Amino acid sequence: MTAETSQTLDRGLRVLKLLADTDHGLTVTELSNKLGVNRTVVYRLLATLEQHALVRRDLGGRARVGLGVLRLGRQVHPLVREAALPALRSLAEDIGATAHLTLVDGAEALAVAVVEPTWTDYHVAYRAGFRHPLDRGAAGRAILAARQGGLTDPGFTLTHGELEAGASGAAAPLVGVTGIEGSVGVVMLADAVPERVGPRVMDAAREVADALR
């Protein structure tokens, strides 16, 4: 801690991070041990966070992340979308296919930014807000591949006909962006994705990741 920082705020943020890393919640005693502070301090931190709906406690007294965190998270999407748009526009124009940025939202893949090419006669209609299971479509599969591989550069994923008949997709995961799990990809009306598209999608994913760091 430095003179310019708040110890109480730091502890409150650490509480949120600890709760975010567990599925079953933590007791006051467990939080006290992990933070290295007494139970009275933890009670006060939890009471303050509860007032803002950032933490909730169940009947057994275990603290969990509250729904207020979700409301804060929704405000992140516009910022992420704005940062990603230049790379998506370049990708869409270069490939001549609809480009998209997809983020994880629970067990689903959520398209938060979509750019369609301006010069093609036809392209796949793909809208921001579109959701699909993570295990269907190139965007979700690329994210799952990054989870399983844990590599610095997991490559790209290709699919055909999983979300829309006759459409093929290519996507590459975002790598090295703290707190964001997602992918960049394209979707096109084709039986197969041209060879150059995969590497180009990977380049776009790196551009977006750099913009978000």
TrEMBL record:
PROSITE patterns the record matches: HTH_ICLR, ICLR_ED
Q: Which InterPro entries match?
A: ArsR-like_HTH, GAF-like_dom_sf, HTH_MetabolicPath_Reg, Tscrpt_reg_IclR_C, Tscrpt_reg_IclR_N, WH-like_DNA-bd_sf, WH_DNA-bd_sf
Family annotation (Pfam families): HTH_IclR, IclR_C
Keyword set for this entry? DNA-binding, Transcription, Transcription regulation
Q: Where is the HTH iclR-type domain?
A: 6-67
User: Which residue ranges does the record assign to the IclR-ED domain?
Assistant: 68-213
Matching entries from SMART domains are given as:
HTH_ICLR (SM00346)
* Protein name in UniProt: IclR family transcriptional regulator
Native source species: Streptomyces lateritius
